[in-house]
């Protein structure tokens, strides 16, 4: 049985519904994207945290890959 991908917010065990895409321009190439997963409750706080630092690139719906 596959475990659902969970939110990246500390202490949250809720299934992720959003992919928060970011990069740090000081250390990543412009096309590189790192991903934090977010539930509906933490989408805004994770996005805002990255946006304040100039790291946020995009937020898109997350669907777990199936094998």
Automatic annotation (TrEMBL):
Name of protein: Acetone carboxylase
């Amino acid at each position: 049985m596959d475990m659902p991908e969970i939110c990246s917010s500390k202490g949250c065990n809720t299934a992720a519904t959003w992919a928060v895409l970011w990069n740090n321009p000081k250390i990543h190439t412009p096309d590189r994207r790192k991903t934090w997963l977010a539930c509906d409750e933490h989408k805004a706080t994770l996005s805002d945290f990255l946006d304040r630092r100039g790291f946020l690139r995009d937020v898109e719906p997350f669907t777990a890959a199936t094998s």
